[in-house]
Amino acid sequence: MTGCGSATPSKCLDNQAMSVLVDTSDEWIRTRTGIRNRHIAAADESLATLAAQAGRDAIAMAGITPDDIDLILLATSTADDMYGSACKIQAELGATRAVAFDLTAACSGFIFGMVTASQYIRTGVYRHVLLIGADIHSRWVNWQDRTTCVLFGDGAGAVVMQASSQDKLLGFEMRSDGSQNHYLNLAYQAQAQELVSGVSVGKGCYQTVTMNGKEVYRFAVQKVPEVIDKALYYANLNVEDIDWLLMHQANQRILDAVAERLGIPADKVISNLAEYGNTSAASIPLALNEAVRDGKIQVNDVIAASGFGAGLSWGAVIFQWGR
Predict the structure, then answer these.
(1) Catalytic choice (39, 128, 137, 248)
(2) 321 φ, ψ to 5°?
């Protein structure tokens, strides 16, 4: 990984504003989630524009141009268009040589995207990949449901992954369990519309996010340490070799519980969800970008990154930052 970038909407909703929308308080939200603020996209802001800005910053840090990009992978569950937004981003960037497509794995999307990009690079098919995680969940939140609306924010993060003589993606593991799919959904609801006698189609639209918070918490604190351990095993490393723990920014209590189970000190845990909330596929690259630009993460630091969420899906990647 040679470059990173991020973009968030300028408009914010802090916990005080949330208490006007629903029966909640700053204290209630902070103690249960660690979130104080979230950035919210305006009605005229698009996911493609946020993602393209994050991508530009990542390309600039990598010291290359859009013409150098071979592949654009967009990890998102909230594309502007049902057919995907990656090609729109390609056009906004002017990356005319790049093939572009969306990858949907919810809050695990960026981790799954890292693994996907690495396979294209390892086989020699592509040398320069732009991986973007971006979501605008404010479009799909029930703003009267305090169990979900206080959690989500909008944003985008990106990294450039390049071929190198030294493979710095050291190990990974990905998992899915569809038997627990019903715990976290953004479901399509259809009503029958008869076209001709005996022939009907389902016409409808997607509903709002629904979540069983207790079950998702239980799932995350059990499965994430396991998948990080497995990725460390494939990397031939131990927990003590980790410089930074970079997890999907869902809930501070989850971050704390996973770090405790792994025996990782709190000062090695990267967290920015107090400012941004849960930005789904954007959360890991957004936090990575801040930590790199703030000088916390240095070249060759070993990072254990893990995403988890709807599907249910989860995964981990062990990698070293920089060229």
Answers:
(1) 248
(2) -80, 145
Query: At 43, which CATH number?
Result: 3.40.47.10
Q: What's the whole-model pTM score?
A: 0.95
How far, in Å, are 62, 93, 234, 244 from residue 58 at the CA level? Answer: 6, 12, 28, 20
Query: What is the residue whose two structure tokens read 């490393």?
Result: 237
278 is catalytic: yes
Q: pLDDT digit string (tens) for 236-250?
A: 999 999 999 999 999
Q: What is the token pair recorded at 123?
A: 């086989």
Last residue of a domain, one of 110, 132, 167: 167
Residues 157 and 224 in one domain: no
For the question of residue 248 being annotated catalytic, the response is yes
Digit-coded pLDDT (tens) for 215-272: 999 999 999 999 999 999 999 999 999 999 999 999 999 999 999 999 999 999 999 9
- The verdict on whether 4 is a catalytic residue reads no
Which residue segment(s) compose the domain that 302 sits in? Answer: 170-177+210-320
Residue 47 lies in a domain: yes
